[in-house]
Structures are given as structure tokens and as C-alpha cells.
Write a structure and sequence with these properties.
CATH topology of the domain at 165-259 in chain A: Leucine-rich Repeat Variant
Shape of chain B: globular
Shape of chain A: extended
GO molecular function, one term (chain B): glycosyltransferase activity
CATH architecture of the domain at 165-259 in chain A: Alpha Horseshoe
Strand content of chain A: under 5%
Largest interface: A-B, 55 and 53 residues
Pfam family, one (chain B): Glyco_trans_2_3
Structural class of chain B: alpha/beta
Oligomer: heterodimer
Number of strands of chain A: 0
Strand order of the largest sheet of chain B: 3-4-5-2-1-6-11-8-12-7
Largest sheet of chain B: 10 strands, mixed
Distance between the termini of chain B: 45 Å
Distance between the termini of chain A: 84 Å
Radius of gyration of chain A: 29 Å
CATH superfamily of the domain at 165-259 in chain A: Leucine-rich Repeat Variant
Radius of gyration of chain B: 23 Å
Keywords (chain B): Glycosyltransferase, Membrane, Transferase, Transmembrane, Transmembrane helix
Number of helices of chain B: 14
Protein name (chain B): Glycosyltransferase family 2 protein
CATH topology of the largest domain in chain B: Spore Coat Polysaccharide Biosynthesis Protein SpsA, Chain A
Number of domains of chain B: 2
Structural class of chain A: mainly alpha
CATH superfamily of the largest domain in chain B: Spore Coat Polysaccharide Biosynthesis Protein SpsA, Chain A
Order of helices and strands of chain A: HHHHHHHHHHHHHHHHHH
Number of helices of chain A: 18
Largest sheet of chain A: none
Strand content of chain B: 15-25%
Organism (chain B): Agrococcus sediminis
Order of helices and strands of chain B: HHEHEHEEEHEEHEEEHEHHEHHHHHE
Helix content of chain A: over 70%
CATH class of the domain at 165-259 in chain A: Mainly Alpha
Chain lengths: ~325, ~500
């Protein structure tokens, strides 16, 4: 074997490498130039059209139709920009201003595009559509989101369930609770946050879900119950402290900090004295309860609890006798 | 000298092709990693419309985060640093500052600035620590979620372990006091935990170089390329190895290194594996390898993820002296961890970590400086005694560095297409010049320093950390005057 490649081969490799480097440099500069041009165009459109969107957001009832007509009269790229701006603003706005923004988005022609995207073959587009449906809430959005919540793509299902949080219809609540199941493929944080967003409308169903046979549903419901102050959830939460799934017990203890019931104290004390992370959580819950209920339990923790548990209970360091 | 001539010719006859193949494989492996990262970024950015970051930021269900800030002689930056961490956008986080026996005013600044009262609660003692804790403080009435621990000097790792022991939240982040965090840093890095709370046990975020960027009130207000060439080259290095390399390893589910400047961990897992090893030079690497061992030896369905969003900014060494110390330390840490975990190498039980990532790190990270330095020495000797044709040597040099530059340029293109943080044309020019300049002495010097670090590791020489002098970031541009070991 020759000790080195032939010079001609090396020269050819060098030439090829140099050519690729030059092409990459051209690509790099072209890419930056195009992006900057695109950004500048966006800035120009924004400067021109954002005042119109803002004006519509705060318009009086008798002014809004004229403003929406102005949106409809814009060119297609301008309407697309207005629709995008309205969608972005909808993430931070609620109430009447949000309704106005939805009307602007509708006038921009966004809604039909979103509804068409629900059937797109690309799951990313379907997920984008689910997100937009939650924000724009056009007629029929709930049914479309329920369908998307059963999509074959877990990504689409996740976004659809999150979007369902904007709807307080019982069907939407039931679909979100179903998404808490362990095998749903949807992160529990997403489904539980949607339930929190649904708020009081989800209260009774969340309480019922505390007895669900699926541990994921029990866990999610237990975590949410305290946050939405689900009526009548205290007693079932106290029972769940000793659930066979540790995560369910931990979620129940977190909720009991906000929804305390006296009957939870014995289980909390037993868990606290067992120590570990669960013990710390139990101690925190006891510390958050009315002193009249928890004083004896906290005294027992002070005497027999692990240092970490005592710390979680807010108790002072034990001094040597 | 004919014997030397003959000997060198014999050596070249044996080593020429293996060296060429090694060089080709090394750069091609990096190129493949960059392409994998590019695909990852494309998928990630396409989903920006529906990722739900805002929903997470507002959710009371987000997992709580304890941010541990070890501080040693950080009086110049501690006020701004703690304020900026407290101000991070996250629904539920606490800050635990561990003053590691500072000889300056760090503790006094903390006491004055944050209205602290003594915390007389127990210390849990769940993690073994060495340094004696003098006192623990917390904000008066719990007005601010801040705990300050004052302890004897025992090093960064031990300080992190003290913070871990006191952490009360589900997730733990360790950040350096002189790092600058993006406002959404905690949101970005905790997202994988929220998406998959059962399986994700650790995440790392991108650390970028802040030198000469504008910093106000602990936040970056304008991103610029550093003025010093040495720091510019490190920007390119960070981009290639840390941003793209680690993203690709994460995509391959074989991530074995999370930067100590910003890593997030499940607290229970960190406690179970015993926290950071205070005796390790590469403590961050060692920790992630220990977690990987915990996953694979225990056959657990768990994973370590890297988040491509920029989360943390740090000053890079701007002098050769400090850079040399950093690189010696890094390579020594690399050797000690790879050697310490040698049983995982090519061990099928470790999956892709053992069969892919570790062989890569042994071959193309640990051995690279040895091969490069030996190659340079042999070629110079060969030229001196006429065993190497100068034209041929130059051609080989151009091909090897040309291919290396091509790979780095690919990394720059991916950055431009994804996050494009350096917006000015002159920054692009500086980046391109850094790609060229990297080969003109920088990489040869770093290869020598890395070899020195490796040798120090083998010989067991005591590690010298060196003095740190910091100017602070507040209301000024980050001038890169810090003289300390940066973290990668």
C-alpha cells in the first residue's frame, strides 16, 4: 500500500472541498439576506397593520363593522399578516378584547384556513390548527377539537386537549379528563392544566374522577381538585393519600394544602413519620392546615420525624437535651 | 541522520493511511452529528406555534424548581445574579445561594440586599457534604423564595450538594453565579420534564459566550461577537460541539455530558445517586455518567435530554493563560471520567451510550490531541530530514483543515437557519474569520494543553484552580476580563 494518497487525488479532494466551501458560503449569505428581507417586510407590514388590529380590539360596537370591512379589503398577504397578529395577541388577551380579536381574525380569512388544516396530512399542520381553534373558537371548534383529541398523532392529541381547556362545555371537560389516563399519550401536565383552565365548570366531574379506576385519571384529578376548589373533594382526597400509586397520594397531598379536611390528618401523620419525599410532602400539607387540626401531628413530627420532614413542616431544629 | 530518515519513512508507511482514515472519520462523525442536530432543529422550530410555552409559564401545575447558585468570591456579581434568577419567568421556583466560604463581601452583600433572617430549621442530611455549614438564612417572612447558606470553603461540587440537601422542589438546577440566564431558561429546560415526567431525569441547556455582548441588570440586551479572536474562536467551538454536538447526542438518546453552567435534574434522582462528586475534576460529566449508569445498570426507562434553546450565557477565557488552564482541566476531567467508567465502553447493557457515545468520546475527543500533536511532530521532523515532501505535506494540511472548516461552516449554516443569534453582518464576518483562524495555531495549542491535562490526570498531579477576578456584568458590556475557568 502506498504510504500516502497520490498528489493528484489530494488535489482533487482539495478542489472539491474548496468548491463545497464556496457554495456553502454563498448559501449562508443568501440565507441571511433572504431572512433579513423577510424580517424587514414583516416589520413594514406590522407598522402599517398593527394599529388597525389594535383599533379593532378597543373599538365601540358601532365602529367595529367598518374596521372589519377594512380588514376584508386588504390584500391577501396583508390579511394573512393581520390574522397572524390577531392570533398572537389572543394568547395574552381575554374578555371583550379577545372577542374583537377573534372577529378580526375571522375577517382576515384565517378561520376557513384553520378549519381546512384540520384535515391536513401533516400532523404539525393539524397541531397548529388545533392550537388556532382553541384561540379563535369559531363555530364548530369544540367538535373539531374533540375529533383532534382522538387524532392518530400524540402531538396533535396533546395540542387539542390543551386547546379544549378554553371550553367549559361538559363534553370538553369529559374529554380532558379522559386524556389524563395513563395510556393516553398526553402529558398529564397538559391535561391537568386544561382542567384548571376550565375551572369551576370541571369541579363536579373532577371530584367524580377521584374514584376513577385509572391511576392517571385519579392522579390528575387529585392534583387539580385543590386548585379549582372542587366541591366535596376533601374526603376523597384524604382517602387518596394512601392510594396504591405513590404519585396519586403525592398529588392528593398537594391539593389538600388548598382544600384541607381534618379527616386527612391521621394519614398525613403516618405518611410524614414514614419519611422520604412523601413524608416531606405530608409534613408540608400538615403545616398548611389550621393549627387546631394539625398541632398534635406536628408535635409528633417534631419528636419523631426525620430532619427533612421536620424541615418541611417548618419546625425549628431539635436541640440536644 | 539517515537512520532517522529511514525510521520516519517506516513510520509514515505504517501510519499514513490510519491517520488519514482517523481524520476523515473524526470530521465526518462531527458532520453527521451536525446533520442530525439540523434535522432536530427543523422539527423543533416547526412546532413553535403550538409548543405551549405560554401555557406552561402560566400553569400552577408546573413542577417546582430549586435553583442552586454556588458562590465563591462573587461580591461583584452576586446581587445582580440572584435578582436575575429570582426574576426568571417560572410559576414556582426558589433560589438557594451557597456561599462557599468567600473571602470577599459576598455574604455581606446578600445579607444587606435581601433582608435575610436566620433559618433555624433542620438540615435534612440526605446528601453527604464536607464543608461545615455556619448558618442558614432565608428571606424575612418568606417574602422572596430565597435561602442563603453560609459555609466553610469546600469547593463548588460540595456547595451544590449542600444546596441539593436543602432543596424543596421537585427539580433542581445548578447555575454558576456569573452565568447570565435567559428569562425563559427554566421554562425551556423544564419542558421535557413536564412532557414526560416519568422518564426524563435530567436536561441540559445551551450555554453561549457572552463576551462583549451588552448586559444590563443581569439580562443580555444586545448579542455581539466577542472582540478578542481567542473568544471568537470559542464561540465557533461552542456552536459546533456544545449546541450541535449535544443536540445530536440527545436526539440519539446517548447524551453523556450536560454543562455544569446550566443543568436541570430530578431532585429525587440526584439524591439517590449521591449528588456531585467533590473529588472529580469533570464533576458535571461524572454526574451525568453516574446517572446513565443508574439508568442502564438498573434497567430503568429513563433518559437525559438536551434543550437546544439558548438558556445560559457565560464568559469565555480571553487570555491564553486562562484558556490553557481551562482546557487542561477539561481534558483531565474527560480522561478521569472515561477511565472511571471504562466498563461502560462497548457494553451493550449501556445501549447507545456504551456502544456509540463513549467510543466516540474515547476515539475523537480523548485521543484527538495525542494524534494531532504526534502528527505535527512527525511531519515537522520528516520535513527537517527530508522524509516528507513539503508540497505533499502542505497539500495534506490544506485538505485536512479544509474539510474541518467545511464541517464548522455547516454548523454555522445550521445556526443561521435556526437561532441566528448573531444578527450583524460584521459578526458573520468575524465568525468566518474565526473558522480560518482556529487552524492557525489555536487548535494546535489547545491540543498541547489537552495533552498536558491528560498527562496530569494519568500522573495524578493535584489540580490547581487558579485565582478568579471578576468585574461584574451589570450596566456594562461583558468585557471578558474574567480570569477563570469557563465551563462548557
Amino acid at each position: 500500500m502506498s504510504p500516502l494518497p497520490a498528489p493528484a487525488v489530494l488535489q482533487a479532494v482539495l478542489l472539491a472541498t474548496s468548491a463545497v466551501v464556496v457554495l456553502m458560503l454563498i448559501a449562508l449569505i443568501a440565507q441571511r439576506t433572504l431572512r433579513r428581507r423577510h424580517d424587514r417586510r414583516d416589520v413594514r407590514l406590522d407598522a402599517r397593520l398593527r394599529p388597525l388590529v389594535l383599533e379593532a380590539t378597543i373599538a365601540e360596537d358601532d365602529e367595529i363593522d367598518a374596521l372589519l370591512d377594512r380588514v376584508r379589503a386588504l390584500s391577501a398577504p396583508e390579511r394573512a399578516h393581520v390574522g397572524r397578529s390577531a392570533s398572537l395577541m389572543l394568547r395574552d388577551v381575554t374578555g371583550e378584547a379577545a372577542d374583537r380579536l377573534r372577529a378580526v381574525a375571522d375577517a382576515s380569512g384565517l378561520v376557513p384556513r384553520v378549519i381546512a388544516a384540520v384535515a391536513d396530512r401533516d400532523p404539525v399542520r393539524r397541531a397548529d390548527a388545533a392550537e388556532a381553534l382553541g384561540l379563535l373558537a369559531p363555530a364548530g371548534a369544540l367538535e373539531l377539537l374533540q375529533a383532534l383529541a382522538d387524532d392518530r398523532s400524540p402531538e396533535v392529541r396533546t395540542v387539542a386537549v390543551r386547546a379544549l381547556g378554553a371550553f367549559d362545555d361538559p363534553a370538553a371537560v369529559d374529554r380532558v379528563i379522559a386524556a389524563l389516563a395513563l395510556d393516553s399519550g398526553i402529558p398529564i401536565s397538559v391535561a391537568a392544566s386544561a382542567l384548571v383552565q376550565q375551572g369551576a365548570a370541571a369541579g363536579e366531574r373532577v371530584r367524580d374522577a377521584l374514584d376513577h379506576p385509572d391511576a392517571g385519571v385519579r392522579r390528575g384529578a387529585a392534583r387539580v381538585a385543590g386548585l379549582i376548589q372542587a366541591p366535596g373533594a376533601g374526603a376523597p382526597l384524604a382517602r387518596l393519600i394512601d392510594d396504591e400509586h405513590e404519585a396519586v397520594g403525592a398529588a392528593a397531598m398537594r391539593s389538600l394544602e388548598r382544600l384541607p379536611v381534618r379527616e386527612a390528618v391521621p394519614s398525613l401523620l403516618a405518611t410524614a413519620l414514614a419519611g422520604g419525599s412523601a413524608g416531606e410532602a405530608a409534613a408540608r400539607t400538615l403545616a398548611a392546615m389550621p393549627a387546631a387540626w394539625s398541632a398534635d401531628a406536628l408535635a409528633a413530627i417534631g419528636a419523631k420525624g426525620e430532619p427533612g420532614v421536620r424541615r418541611a413542616a417548618g419546625l425549628p431544629r431539635r436541640t440536644a437535651a | 541522520m539517515t537512520w532517522l530518515h529511514d525510521a520516519l519513512e517506516a513510520v509514515f508507511a505504517v501510519l499514513a493511511w490510519p491517520s488519514a482514515i482517523y481524520f476523515l472519520l473524526s470530521n465526518t462523525a462531527l458532520l453527521v452529528l451536525i446533520l442530525i442536530a439540523a434535522r432536530h432543529f427543523a422539527r423543533y422550530l416547526r412546532r413553535s406555534e403550538h409548543r405551549g410555552d405560554d401555557a406552561m409559564a402560566a400553569s400552577p401545575l408546573s413542577l417546582g424548581v430549586s435553583v442552586i447558585v454556588p458562590a465563591y468570591n462573587e461580591a461583584a456579581v452576586i446581587r445582580t445574579s440572584v435578582r436575575s434568577v429570582l426574576d426568571l419567568r417560572y410559576p414556582d421556583h426558589e433560589v438557594i445561594v451557597v456561599n462557599d466560604g468567600s473571602a470577599d463581601d459576598t455574604m455581606r452583600v446578600l445579607l444587606e440586599e435581601f433582608d435575610l433572617v436566620e433559618d433555624d430549621r433542620d438540615i435534612p442530611g440526605r446528601v453527604p457534604v464536607r464543608g461545615t455549614i455556619r448558618r442558614v438564612w432565608r428571606s424575612r417572612g418568606g417574602a422572596v423564595p430565597l435561602t442563603v447558606v453560609d459555609k466553610e470553603n469546600s469547593g463548588r461540587s460540595d456547595s451544590v450538594n449542600v444546596g441539593l440537601d436543602l432543596a424543596a422542589k421537585e427539580l433542581v438546577v445548578m447555575v454558576d453565579a456569573d452565568s447570565i440566564l435567559e428569562p425563559d431558561a427554566l421554562l425551556s429546560v423544564s419542558k421535557p420534564f413536564a412532557d414526560d415526567p416519568e422518564r426524563v431525569v435530567a436536561t441540559g441547556g445551551v450555554v453561549r459566550i457572552v463576551n462583549n455582548s451588552r448586559v444590563q441588570g443581569g439580562r443580555i440586551t444586545e448579542i455581539r461577537m466577542p472582540r478578542q479572536l481567542i473568544a471568537r474562536i470559542q464561540v465557533v467551538e461552542y456552536l459546533r460541539a456544545f449546541l450541535l454536538g449535544r443536540t445530536a447526542w440527545s436526539d440519539l438518546q446517548a447524551l453523556i455530558l450536560i454543562s455544569g453552567a446550566f443543568g436541570m435534574f430530578r431532585r429525587d434522582v440526584l439524591i439517590e445517586v449521591g449528588g456531585l462528586d467533590p473529588d472529580s475534576i469533570g464533576e458535571d460529566f461524572e454526574l451525568v455518567m453516574r446517572i446513565q449508569r443508574w439508568i442502564h445498570e438498573g434497567r430503568r426507562d429513563a433518559r437525559v435530554e438536551f434543550v437546544a434553546e439558548p438558556v445560559s450565557w457565560t464568559e469565555a477565557p480571553s487570555t491564553l493563560r486562562v484558556l490553557a488552564r481551562q482546557r487542561r482541566r477539561w481534558h483531565r476531567g474527560l480522561w478521569e471520567v472515561l477511565w472511571g467508567y471504562r466498563r461502560a465502553l462497548l457494553n451493550p447493557r449501556y445501549g447507545r451510550v456504551g456502544m456509540l457515545a463513549l467510543p466516540y468520546y474515547w476515539l475523537f475527543e480523548l485521543l484527538a490531541p495525542l494524534i494531532e500533536v504526534v502528527g505535527i511532530v512527525l511531519v515537522v521532523l520528516g520535513l527537517a530530514v527530508g522524509a516528507v515532501d513539503p508540497g505533499m505535506a502542505l497539500l495534506l494540511l490544506l485538505v485536512s483543515y479544509g474539510y474541518g472548516a467545511l464541517v464548522t461552516l455547516a454548523a454555522v449554516i445550521v445556526e443561521e437557519a435556526s437561532f441566528h443569534r448573531y444578527e450583524r453582518w460584521r459578526d458573520l464576518g468575524a465568525t468566518l474569520w474565526a473558522i480560518v483562524a482556529e487552524n492557525l495555531g489555536y487548535r494546535q495549542l489547545t491540543a498541547i494543553w489537552r495533552l498536558q491535562g491528560w498527562w496530569a490526570g494519568i500522573a495524578g498531579t493535584q489540580q490547581v484552580w487558579g485565582e478568579m477576578t471578576r468585574t461584574g456584568f451589570a450596566e456594562a458590556d461583558a468585557s471578558g476580563q474574567r480570569q477563570a475557568d469557563g465551563r462548557g
